[in-house]
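In the current project phase, we have settled on a layout for protein records. One protein thus recorded is set out beneath this paragraph:
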Amino acid sequence: MYGRDPWGGPLEIAADSATDDDRSRNLQDYDRAALSRPLDETQQSWLLGPGEQKKKKYVDLGCIIVSRKIFLWTVGTILAAGFLAGFITLIVKTVPRHHHRPPPPDNYTLALNKALMFFNAQRSGKLPKHNNVSWRGNSCVNDGKSDSSTLFKDLSGGYYDAGDAIKFNFPQSFAMTMLSWSVIEYRAKYEAAGELNHVKDIIKWGTDYFLKTFNHTADTIDRIVSQVGKGDTTGGDPNDHYCWMRPEDIDYDRPVTECHSCSDLAAEMAAALASASIVFKDNKAYSQKLVHGARTLFKFSRDQRGRYSVGTEAAIFYNSTGYYDEFVWGAAWLYYATGNNSYLQLATTPGIAKHAGAFWGGPYYGVLNWDNKLAGSQVLLSRLRLFLSPGYPYEEILSTFHNQTKIFMCSFLPYYTSFNRTKGGMIELNHGNPQPLQYVVNAAFLATLFSDYMKAADTPGWYCGPHFYSTDVLREFAETQINYILGKNPRKMSYIVGFGSHYPKHVHHRGASIPKNKVKYNCKGGWKWRDSNKPNPNTLVGAMVAGPDRHDGFHDVRTNYNYTEPTLAGNAGLVAALVALSGDTSVGIDKNTIFSAVPPMFPTPPPPPAPWKP
């Protein structure tokens, strides 16, 4: 069979005897032979059909392609790990936990908790709900109103001085200054003991009262209150010493004593307000109120010279021997509170230091107490030299104070004979006179504090003559004395009420010795409780009594106040010493808080001059 070839030649088409199936297979063979490169799976599937597809070995995750085995192994591992973690978490949540208890508080911390409670028991006025002394209540809320001779009509509040109900502002302000100083230096330790808010409440109760005792809004004043109540019993009239009554039941007149020339009292009150302003620096309005009051009081102390106790009954109980030590003390605290250099210039004036007794010794040199603050001022200003070193024109007197501090620190050590010691080990800072413990605790505080100052200044110790002593020696002295008070003495007696199992039970204290039984005992009606041989019905927790005699003897007799009466000033020193020794020994002082208001010691250099232009 022939057909026409479009290119001009004949086209022969031969008859094909093969079947269509054979022809199709031949064509497929030709197609495979014509492929010169391998095909991927998609192409093979398209060309070869579903019959010859292979099982997938990879998983396409979009961004990457991974092996199917690796993918399945990874997913399985993640699921197994999640299940295991959940199972472990379930076990941890359901099994009871065994908490590791913190170490028990040391004796100093335990005693600190109690010592602060004494101030709650001494509060006058309308008490706060959280006072936590069940046998105390509101008392003497009309102080000031009942005395027509005074300009100050609201004198409620503050603290009773000791076992009576008199408010002596001189020792009371010293007590508040000591508490504030201890908070400024050892805030972290108060916080660790859970007592920071408590001690701040105690301080504020005192400073709120002080603001009532003078015109704190004025810049210049001519009088302040020095005392509320009366203690002179020579006339036989009912008063705070003649009568033995619970403060809540007092119905006799409580006169107000004012002073117009009282440099010592005014400067001490200025120190109390100035130091408290640093404690409350986060409460700006209250802190500024305290600073203003401190400035006013200190100006009054400088303008109206005189001793507050002259011609008053305070000379019997809290006689002041001078006021130049308060000038140094008050000026130092006002400098720290304000940063005003005029106060530092006054505190470092050689003439004032001379009149304060800085350059002559004497039997009580280095002994801090409610009357003489020179030792405290020397330590306080040594701090300035150690950490800020202001240099000229202050360096001469600051270095003198620093050297004098080292000298009286030496006198505390048992290697020297400036002060005797009892056979039981108590240092006799008041040379065998009654009521020794108030002096002991102040010395323990200063020794620990100065030791911490030296440690913070990377100073390993100091020289006493040719002998070098490490800072640890001062701490050991303080611990020895406080341990004596806590019970490590020949009588095995704690001199802090409520601490330990053996402590004074007949404390000279009106409120603690009269039961709260809804019976009002009049002025003389309470004498039976004063003279009773039975233990006090109310425990005056935390009260440090006056202390033993020079032979380590102690008479637990209520009427013998030289042994059994506690005081505000004594307990303030105790609190300061306890917090300084408490807790972790690696926690030292707060170096910077006291300097918050102090400007840089050296002025910033002036900017460079402008470029010269012709």
Summary: Residues 68-94 form the longest helix (27 residues). The longest strand covers residues 224-228. Confidence is low (pLDDT under 50) at residues 1-18. Residues 358 and 374 are 7 Å apart (CA to CA).
